[in-house]
Write a structure and sequence with these properties.
Blueprint lengths: L3 H13 L3 H28 L12 H37 L2
Helix pairs in contact: 1-2, 1-3, 2-3
Length: 98
Amino acid sequence: MLMQPIFRVRVANELGAGSARRAKFAIYNVVITSFLIGFVLFVLFLFFRGNLAYIFTESRAVADAVADLSPLLAFSILLNSVQPVLSGMLSVLLNDRD
């Protein structure tokens, strides 16, 4: 989310320069990079799901509950890694037409 304005500016600059091909390439790069970061976190949360809760608590019941919910968290991280980028790129493309 922190880098989203940087990506929006990059795509807007390319569109402003009249280079649709470069803007398309910038969008692909942003989406792929965002997806890869989300996928790495997805795998880490699935891999460490049994030990993740012990960072914050020593309770076995809480750790079991976190382990049960970790796949949902991992999947949410994966989806949320790409959605803001696509949403931001869509707003850049729609605002550029005005």
